[in-house]
From TrEMBL:
NADP(+) binds at residues 166-168. The gene is folD. Its EC number is 1.5.1.5, 3.5.4.9. The lineage of its organism: Bacteria, Bacillati, Actinomycetota, Actinomycetes, Pseudonocardiales. This is Bifunctional protein FolD. One of its GO terms (cellular component) is cytosol. GO terms for molecular function: methenyltetrahydrofolate cyclohydrolase activity; methylenetetrahydrofolate dehydrogenase (NADP+) activity. Pfam families: THF_DHG_CYH (PF00763), THF_DHG_CYH_C (PF02882). InterPro entries: Aminoacid_DH-like_N_sf (IPR046346), NAD(P)-bd_dom_sf (IPR036291), THF_DH/CycHdrlase (IPR000672), THF_DH/CycHdrlase_cat_dom (IPR020630), THF_DH/CycHdrlase_CS (IPR020867), THF_DH/CycHdrlase_NAD-bd_dom (IPR020631). Belongs to the tetrahydrofolate dehydrogenase/cyclohydrolase family. Keywords: Amino-acid biosynthesis, Histidine biosynthesis, Hydrolase, Methionine biosynthesis, Multifunctional enzyme, NADP, One-carbon metabolism, Oxidoreductase, Purine biosynthesis. Homodimer.
Amino acid sequence: MTARILDGRATSAAMLDRVREEVAEFSREHGRVPVLATVLVGDDPASHTYVRMKANRCAKVGMESRRVELDAGISTETLVKTIRELSADPAVDGILLQHPVPGHIDERAAFEAIDPAKDVDGVTRTSFARMAFDEGGFASATPGGIMALLDAYEIPLSGKHAVVVGRSPILGKPVGMLLLARDATVTYCHSRTRDLAEHVARADIVVAAVGRPELIRGEWIKPGAVVVDAGYADNRGDVEYEAAAERASFITPVPGGVGPMTIATLLAQTVRAAREGTEK
């Protein structure tokens, strides 16, 4: 068996085409375009690259990107104040705080300064709760992108056993809740899980979201399973790709799988935030 590729580039391109149409419609109706504010603290090269990519995508769909750069030595209080000012600005529809922030900053306090109505990256406690209770909150962008990718390939989720390896508050935990909401049976695994290989081997769907290169070995994959690798391109992903592809039915490449879906989901949720903001 050779796995079929879950092509995030092609799927995200289709999503962004729809976003472009929604932006144009919003502009015709309201005389302005949706605005995404990105907050970047410090000079981490990878973070600058990600923010630049997001700004480029905004431009391609006709959306405005407002970039706020702050010195790495700022305090939590200053960052929180900046984010609260953006939250109060009626010209801003969505807010993204680029992760990670410098270690001395209380990242959770900064996230919580984002107005949930503008939390298009789905990082606040309120967004997580609304998402978990199916009350219309914004999904964390990467988990939301994963679900959109699975849906694009019409992968059935109801009744399936999904194993999520990773428990971060903006990736592992929310993707498990989204799968649960779609009637999958979800097992969370993490660094303290015993017999990880046995858990993975029973999974119909594996979501690798732990950030450790090739932690998930190819021989662990159940024949016919769906493998979603949310690892990073610069560390080759969390899954031993070639070996896993010989056993899986579908698999995401790294890069080109989950990453493009994250940005597309972020922009789609920004348009939604803009639309919902005008309805208040």
